[in-house]
What we know:
By secondary structure, this protein is an alpha/beta fold. Helix content is 37%, strand content 20%.
Amino acid sequence: MIGAIDIGGTKIAVGMVDDAGRVLAKTESPTQGQRGYSDGLARIENMLRETARQAGGQLRGIGIGSTGWVFPFTGEFGDVDFLPTWKGCNPVNDLSRAFHVSAALENDGDASALGEAAWGAARGKSRLIYITVGTGIGGGIVLDGQLYRGVDRAHPEVGHHVIDASGPPCTCGFRGCWEALATGPAMAAWYHSQPGARTTAGQLTAKQIFEQARSGDALARQAVERETYYLALGLANLIGLFVPEVIVLGGSLMKSVQLNDLRQVIAQGCRFVPWQKTELALASLGEDANLIGAARVWHHRYHP
Length: 304
Ligand SMILES: [Zn+2]
């Protein structure tokens, strides 16, 4: 079994995953980045020991998926917003030493892409893109079974391609990135900027706006159409650039979106590539997708 660690903004999840991608045991702890790296590392080590004991197998290796920036081949953390004290720290070396096994690290979008490719909705496919839409847009690209990496083996940021240059400002420096237009918070922000938005019980979430749209609210329907359009434009760009076999869609927002509506927008363009052959599929690894992906990081590095 592989020890899997998923490091996110709100929690650190740790578990044991077997060679078929099944979670044998898991636990979690609030991220609490302000408590410092050694505190975080100690908690991770305790959670690994606890879940290994529960699962009762032999620990073969450790896989880590984390929100970026991280450096997969040195094992170091870069500038991660919610983990400022982790910068320059190396959990790959530290955990490898503590448990006497090999360890590997990837960006969490890449980790989930690897998980879905091996054990989920993209199983058997060699060219795929994984996209997760929630409070941000992240993802990973797998070509010919290998994780695509850029210069210095950098992780590409699919959420920051520009959809509308006159759109809202983005944290990366541009305006109108896919992430600035098509996430749940972006959808809610647009809805609440319109006259006639419902605000009686506080601001609606994207999920609630989808519900309002289904019950016939005109402004909510407009927000859903807009959301679907921007989401599909980004997907159409990826189809035009990569023509993958499948785009796997994960994240909370995808629970509300209709795939057929996305396809209708994609069909308006893309006529120079066989876009009909690119399947859109919902992520299939469920709530443990990040943990399972983190375990797959180890397999991909050491047993490809
Ligand atoms: Zn951006």
